[in-house]
Amino acid sequence: MEWINKQNVLIVGLGLMGGSYAKALKRIGCRVTAIDKSEDTIKFAIDNNIIDDGTFKEENEASFVKEADCIILALYPNAAIEWVKNHVDNMKEGIRLTDVTGVKSCIVYKIQEILGDKAEFIAAHPMAGKETSGVENADDRIFRDANYIVVPTDKNTEEAILWCENLGQILGFNKVSILSPEEHDEMIAYVSQLTHCIAISLMTCKDNEHLKDYTGDSFRDLTRIARINENMWSELFHVNKEPLLKEMDLFINELTQLRNLIDKDDQEAIKEKMRLSTKRRSKFNQNNKNK
Amino acid sequence: MEWINKQNVLIVGLGLMGGSYAKALKRIGCRVTAIDKSEDTIKFAIDNNIIDDGTFKEENEASFVKEADCIILALYPNAAIEWVKNHVDNMKEGIRLTDVTGVKSCIVYKIQEILGDKAEFIAAHPMAGKETSGVENADDRIFRDANYIVVPTDKNTEEAILWCENLGQILGFNKVSILSPEEHDEMIAYVSQLTHCIAISLMTCKDNEHLKDYTGDSFRDLTRIARINENMWSELFHVNKEPLLKEMDLFINELTQLRNLIDKDDQEAIKEKMRLSTKRRSKFNQNNKNK
After folding, report:
1. Dmax over Cα atoms in chain B, in whole Å?
2. CATH 1.10.3660.10 assigned to B184-287
């Protein structure tokens, strides 16, 4: 496989995700370099053998880009677009780029346009994470039970799609699949962004400090993700605004319907909703026995 | 302590909760009897030494009631009220009753009125549970990390309140506290009933079977409780309708606000919400290191 050995991989943005990619890729014999704004991050990563080399100085970035056989963008969406714009001229002809961003339509088309025929960008979303951040917490075991989604457009070649799928397998993801940017963004608006909006609103709708002693598992489960990196998530919401608003409206409408059924004492309709939710959630359990 | 030894405890309704009470009380030397409509349940509980004696026949109930030094109601709210109505005449003079019901205002005052001076009802809510049900799954270890709330009214004596707090300690609850019926019902509408409504609506708002492969931990966390006993929960929603609607409106309003901030691209206001939710949720974590 193309990924094994001799690949010179450049990771741009060495946080939890970039660092975890680095660990997995070093293990299979890639030469891994990284660019990050933080001197501490680069030093830590070199000292701990997470990367082979790297730089935190803008003036050195070009030489790392020139050497790269492929590039993994592990930046926030807007920063990824900016970075590609600034460095496209230094890239080797025909290399492949991929990313780790949680939203797609807003960046895939733009990056592909910037690259033109110079290089090929094939987007991917590794649906893994931890509640901690930073390269110090990098750990490629987070990929084991997680999903990896390749998100091609019409402009992508079969070879690049396969290359990106292989990357997901090499990283150790449980399942690798393919979605269009639009399918991906609708899905992520529902299963991830909407759930974070719900968790936030559950915490902010009411002064609840005095309730700490009374919460059971359900409240804790629903609000675990209410601790949130506000810079990253406000940007993710912004760039995926249209699908997110659609899912929020769908959910608010459904919850309002349930509210009105309770208000009207329509027991049979309420039970019908509960049976549907039970049936659907049971299917999820069958798929993932351990969750 | 009054609870140790010689108490003749009657448990009415031998499900997961009644059975778990029985196990804990047998262990400290109480004589435990039970009434349940199911022959299998009573047989299983006697065969497995969960209770000392019990009946599934209505015509035998009176003799068990006459012997009881105290009674634990482990029935659905309306069934509990009915049962007390039917059996008050057979109760020993001055005994105490308690319950395990998840809603309070709707039953406490009614049961206290039915009992009059004959016996004293002191309500309690053991905030424990499992996703399984039935006496076969009874297990008093579910009380260990959980909260137990004593819910007295003006009619309750200091002695009964203390007796009920002692019961919570004996059962092995992590924390025993006191709330008024109204405080309790508002709290439970927020931390338990609203969260169940949210989980249900997340599953019912959208056909999601094809999304099984893409869900991460957040979606699974938020919908774990979407598998729901529709008979019990529709009754719980009904009897606690007023506080529940209030909390639902609060939450729907807050989520709609967040939706509108996203729509207007008000990044600073969105970040402010996120900071508040992060701060509040972090305090919850400090309180329960393991959750």
Report:
1. 69
2. yes
